[in-house]
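From the shared-data thread, chain only:
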Amino acid sequence: MKICIYCHNRIPKEALICPMCGSDVSGSEAIPQDAFYQSTLFEESTEHILDVTADDEAYSEATSRAEKQSFTFNEAKQKATRYIRFLWKKMKDPAETRKSRRESHNLYGYFTFVLSALLSAGLVTRIAVALTKQYDLLSQISLLPSVTFQIEPVVWFMKNFLLFLTFYYLYPLLAYLIKTFFLHRRHALHNWMTQYAGMNAFGLLLLSAAFVISLIAPILMAIPVLLLFLVHLSSYLVTFIASLYQTINETKRDTLYLCLGGISAHLLLVMTFAYLLFLKM
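Structure, as tokens:
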């Protein structure tokens, strides 16, 4: 067995394509099982390395048997616990600067983005519906001309969900493309998504708190909720800039312009999608 240099999973020694992440390992030397690998988010440097020889055959067999078992409530509880542990670990050490084994699943990033989009859509829909009802109530007793608004909560929620899902996915995807094609640094896409989402674990906590508060007092606490929500959204922008600046740039391209180009592309795509969702549909 050997270790894939991109996703750090054990693969057959003669494999040319990693069966776990799909990366091409034919042109590069995979890491022997008794060697080291690096698990930080930003760069493939050798400053922070850790040993991968701690796994034993008993653990592998137990994991294999667990995967073959039928889906049960206890299994779902264990998966939820592992996911929460992953978020807690990321809140304590977002950039994985400590020497510790990477225990995250390749799909944690995608799940985090979907969860964030659901919470964001629910928060915005809740506040929009509450403000609309409050405005209609005040307009009935006002002597001034009023404008009527009509918001269908289900439709509004679905449109916001698609918009925020695009927002969350675009930042790590653009960072991945810039690293790959402009900075010539190779990453496994699934692992990159997971590590990017993990960097924003604290932002997810703020979003969850804002969502709960919006359910309790959408009018009274609207401003604090929106402030927490903006801080959460800003964390994705900060992570995007930090991930590019922490990458070793051996090209002649200026990292600042790569950041500005990525942010501009993200803003343009999100605004275009929002226009198509809310004004054309």
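Confidence is low (pLDDT under 50) at residues 33-56.
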